[in-house]
Fold:
Amino acid sequence: MKLYFGKSTLTTLLLAGFVAYAALAFWRRAEIQHWGRRTLLVLAWGLVLCAQAAVRDGYHLSVQHAIDGSCAPGLFAAAGPQAIVGGALAAAVVLCAIITPFVGSQSGRRGLFFTAAGCMLVKIAFVELSRVWFWLSGSTGWKF
Structure:
C-alpha cells in the first residue's frame, strides 16, 4: 500500500476518480446528452493526473539527468517506453478534444469521448503496471 499512499495519495485519488468517472459514463451512456463537455473534462482531468504522476515519479529529474547529468534520474527514463507510450496516448487525447467541437452529432462526440477515455485508461494502466513491476522486482528505475 506504500506504493499508492503516502506522498502519492493525491495521484491515487485522482486515478481512482478518473476510472470511476469513465466507468460511470459507460454505464450511463444512454442518458448522457452532452458528450463534448465530458471530453473536455477527460482532457483537463488527464492533464492534472499526468502532471501529478510525473512529479510523483520524478520525471523532471529524468529530463534534467538526460540534459546535463547533474542529478539522479527519476523512476522512468526521459526517453523510455513510459514516456513514449504516454506521450503518444496524450497526443491522441488532445486530438480528440480538438476535434470534438467540429463533430456535429452527439454519437460522434460520444465516440471521441470513449476514445479519449480509453487512451487515458491505457496510459494509466501502462504506467501503474510499470511502477508495480519495478516495486516487485526491487528495481530503482528504467535504465537506458
Q: What stands out?
A: The longest helix spans residues 106-137. Residues 63 and 100 are 32 Å apart (CA to CA). The helical segments are 9-27, 35-56, 59-68, 81-99, 106-137. The chain has five helices and no strands.
